[in-house]
Design a protein that fits this description.
The strands form two sheets. Strands 3-2-1-4 form a four-stranded parallel beta sheet, sandwiched between helices. The protein has a four-stranded antiparallel beta sheet with strand order 5-8-6-7, sandwiched between helices. The mean pLDDT is 91. It has two domains: 95 residues, Rossmann fold; 77 residues, ATP-grasp fold, A domain (Dna Ligase, domain 1). It contains seven helices and eight strands. By secondary structure, it is α/β, with parallel strands linked by helices.
């Protein structure tokens, strides 16, 4: 469905995929604007469940539950990037989903995301795909050390990451991230980190 003309009137319901702390904060902010929220999350202990009018506790692949969820909301968003892109695409056929599911598919894989940004001619830390211990050794040979090995998916807030200062630490880093498909990134001169939150 097109999201270009989505307008929410007071009392409208926002569907939120994911029920963690960001979903909770989103729901609280929406309530101050006179908007209701309905959270869909597989975790029965989801923190956002405590602050919304409606909840659906089901797997992200449960199409019957997703259909019922879509019927109960006016627009859908997600609280973090680890919601399956297929779930967002399924729902986008029923209700406006913002951001577009293609954005979710890009941001939930670090290699896809970094490649996308680099193709926009935006500078990033040097990086390389890593799928094996041999690939890690080759990437470190090109990128140098120190470096950070990161899982491509399901890593956040430092999870799924291992620091490599010496060549001898590479094998341990590969084990530490569970031998999952990864990227390795070089260190860069660092002054500050800036986060930008935008709303419209």
């Amino acid at each position: 469905m097109s999201d270009s003309a989505t307008r929410l009137a007071p009392g409208a319901t926002i569907g939120i995929l994911g029920g963690g702390q960001l979903g909770r904060m989103l729901a609280l902010a929406a309530a101050r604007l006179g908007l209701k929220c309905h959270v869909f999350c597989p975790d029965p202990q989801a923190p956002a469940f405590d602050v919304v009018r409606r909840t659906t506790q089901a797997d992200y692949g449960d199409e019957n539950a997703l259909d019922r969820f879509a019927e109960a909301v006016d627009v859908i968003t997600y609280e973090f990037e680890n919601v399956p892109a297929e779930t967002a695409a399924f729902l986008a056929e029923r209700r406006p989903v913002l951001p577009n599911p293609s954005v979710l598919a890009t941001t939930q894989d670090r290699l896809t995301e970094k490649t996308f940004v680099a193709n926009l001619d935006v500078r990033t830390a040097p990086f390389a795909a890593v799928d094996s211990p041999a690939g890690l050794a080759a990437a470190l040979g090109r990128i140098g050390r120190p470096a950070v090995l990161k899982t491509r998916r399901f890593g956040y807030d430092g999870k799924g990451q291992a620091l490599i200062r010496e060549t001898t630490e590479a094998a341990q880093a590969w084990k530490a991230i569970g031998a999952h498909p990864a990227i390795v990134e070089a260190f860069v001169p660092f002054e500050r980190e800036i986060s930008v939150v935008a709303a419209r």
